[in-house]
Fold this protein.
Amino acid sequence: MARKPKLDTLLAEAVDTARLSLAEIAGESEIGEHLGVTAEGERLVTHRFISHKKGYQGWTWFATLARVPRAKAKDLTVCEVGIIAGEDSLLAPAWVPWADRLAKEEIEAAEAEHSAVDGEQPTEAETSAAAQDEQGSEQPQAIPEGEADAVPAQDELATDEVADEEELQSVKSPARRQVRRRRTAQRTAARRRAAQRNRARKDG
């Protein structure tokens, strides 16, 4: 059985030294009454003080002092200072991993969203169609003269553009959105050209 260390008298009487060392990390008003001193080893002791620090009720300030053989009171060494919790201390709740804090509904929603993202990956056919459409997008499609008269007027053109935009928003796949966007732009340009030709014929 290990022998209990003997309390060093010089270190035990150095209460003021311990309090001054704590004043470097706490305000003087936050350091309360001296609670006692404990021998930690040969010529090594720890002084304890009541904590008046706001939010740290029940905690205890401590200062650990040491000295070399035949050292005087002015030559004491401050090894460590800090604050520790007591039995009645107000403590933060135990840390819980993020995955364990999630509710069942949140986990199911996250899994559903992940599955939806995976399901929106463009297929090979969609990617090929997008590439072909991109190559032909620079060349506007001609409209036969017989069909020009059937193109809606300017007020109907705005309605069609809104419908095309709604159709575009309803498509979730990135590749499909790209194809729809180009097709919508082509149809809009064709309608505007046809509307201009109709107005020119009426004015003529």
In short: Strands lie at 31-41, 44-51, 60-66, 77-84. Residues 9-31+44-85 form one domain. Confidence is low (pLDDT under 50) at residues 146-152.
